[in-house]
Amino acid sequence: MHLIQKKAALGIKGLTILCVVLGLFTNAEPAQDAEGELTFLKLKLESLKDRIRHLCNQYSDLAHNCSAPAINCTECPDGWVHVGDHCFVLSKDTDGWLNSTLKCKDIGGHLAILTTKEEHDALEKEARRIGTFNPFYWLGLTDIENEGNWKWVDNSTLQVSFWNTLKSEPDNNESAGKAGEDCAVVDTQNQNWYDVPCSFQYRRICQMDAIPLK
Ligand SMILES: [Ca+2]
Ligand SMILES: [Ca+2]
Asked: Nearest ligand to the C-alpha of residue 168?
């Protein structure tokens, strides 16, 4: 009886060790599988990118020989709006202008530098798609250094503007304080710009360069 109990105990011990060893293997396998799958997916992604590049280049070459509009073989991150060589994204949260510049930097971009009607059209469409009570968004445009001398966040001077001149913008209105209005927003419903106090809270448009595929 005593011997049988000993054997049974040994049997349980052996079974436990076997289970632990099996457990080690079964735990190790998914990790190896995941690593293998990741490598496979990376290869597949690269292969698909090559394919897109190839197709895009073919399309561009064809477009040169017919009346089809030219396209740029570039891409934007998911959720960003692609216009020409640039990508734009509209924030959901609001903040002051300075913090907004930092938040755009955090995601690898800068506050939007809008120079064309095409960009305004695309952003109006995107803002309407998102839908919000307040259609105003920060732009990367300020005259904080030198009153009346409007500069973009890349330090370039303002060439083409979309100020709401019917309302005498920019007017550096001091009704909200002596600091006046040194930061610009775009009204995405009518594509007009306004200068407003930099401390006001608005959503923002961040921008980055589209990634060339060629
Ligand atoms: Ca001003
Ligand atoms: Ca104003």
From this structure: 2
